[in-house]
Design goal:
The structure is a single chain. By secondary structure, the chain is mostly helical. The chain has a domain at 1-59. The protein has four helices and no strands. Helix 1 (7-17) crosses helix 2.
Length: 143
């Protein structure tokens, strides 16, 4: 961007220094302003690049996010696989429980039958050992 020296200021410098010196002074000031503008533009670009580098180091890039995403998907797949294995193990345990329950139920029925038989035998034995019953049996069987 070109710098334009204010005409009023130029006229005052010309009155004090003369036309040649005023022209040289104004050209020097304009050149200095151009150099300052160029340097400030360079500094702005340099600061932008430094800031970009710093932000690149601090912030995640798309590549970083894609790597993280793929790692998370791998972990998710591993967890889902482990969940599937646990579900299968639970199915096996449930089947074992059902099998054990059926076996225990069968054994309880057998024990119940045996217990009922023993109770009946005890009742018969007690009845037969009763003196009154023994006398009746002797009369009926004629001992």
């Amino acid at each position: 961007m070109a710098y334009s020296f204010p005409i009023e200021l130029y006229q005052q410098i010309e009155e004090k220094l003369g036309k040649e010196l005023a022209t040289a002074t104004v050209k020097s000031v304009e050149a200095a302003v151009v150099v300052i503008e160029q340097r400030s533009d360079e500094l702005a670009v340099q600061k932008k690049l430094e800031l970009k580098d710093e932000l690149t180091k601090e912030l995640a890039t798309k590549a970083d996010i894609l790597v993280l995403r793929s790692e998370m998907l791998a972990i998710q797949g591993k967890i889902e696989g482990e969940i599937k294995v646990v579900r299968e193990e639970i199915k096996v345990v449930r089947e074992e429980i059902k099998s054990s329950e059926a076996r225990v139920t069968g054994e309880l029925k057998t024990l119940n039958t045996k217990f009922n038989f023993v109770v009946i035998l005890v009742m018969i034995a007690l009845t037969i050992m009763n003196p009154t019953v023994a006398e009746l049996l002797k009369k009926w069987l004629k001992f």
